[in-house]
Task: inverse folding
């Protein structure tokens, strides 16, 4: 696969990861479609293994999401700024401490957004707990899976 196509696949994967944070955007399916596109062009054992693994992981995540409480965004005051901070925190955490850093980065992004909005530690932490109970777990599970697939794809591209 040539460099422009690799960059486009990477862009699709990035849009998928961002799409997880935006309600109504099929982020998980965009990530899967990006890996499928890459595997169909790459045609190696590594590419097919990654596609099968990504498919299994993303399907398991969909089942897990159905078992979690539904998203209630408006009731807890989730804002666009909070979504941006949470996503940026998860991405930064994922890069700083691979995979495991996404969780504290996500929560830290929500906390920072609420601390800037509300001003005090107590109010911000109470808001973080409310958000995590209502929507955070569902979003975090999906985001972590998409980041893992994207990281595995990047590793496979760099190894190849």
Result:
């Amino acid at each position: 696969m040539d460099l422009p196509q690799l960059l486009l696949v990477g862009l699709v994967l990035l849009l998928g990861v961002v799409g997880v944070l935006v309600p109504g955007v099929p982020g998980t399916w965009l990530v899967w479609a990006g890996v499928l596109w890459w595997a169909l062009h790459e045609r190696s054992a590594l590419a097919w293994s990654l596609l099968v693994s990504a498919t299994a992981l993303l399907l398991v995540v969909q089942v897990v999401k159905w078992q979690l409480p539904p998203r209630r965004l408006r009731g807890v005051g989730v804002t666009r700024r909070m979504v941006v901070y949470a996503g940026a925190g998860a991405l930064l955490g994922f890069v700083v401490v691979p995979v495991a850093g996404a969780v504290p980065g996500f929560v830290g992004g929500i906390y920072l957004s609420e601390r800037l909005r509300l001003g005090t530690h107590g109010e911000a932490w109470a808001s973080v707990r409310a958000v995590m109970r209502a929507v955070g777990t569902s979003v975090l599970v999906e985001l972590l899976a998409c980041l893992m697939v994207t990281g595995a794809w990047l590793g496979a591209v760099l190894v190849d």
Remarks:
- The longest helix spans residues 121-159.
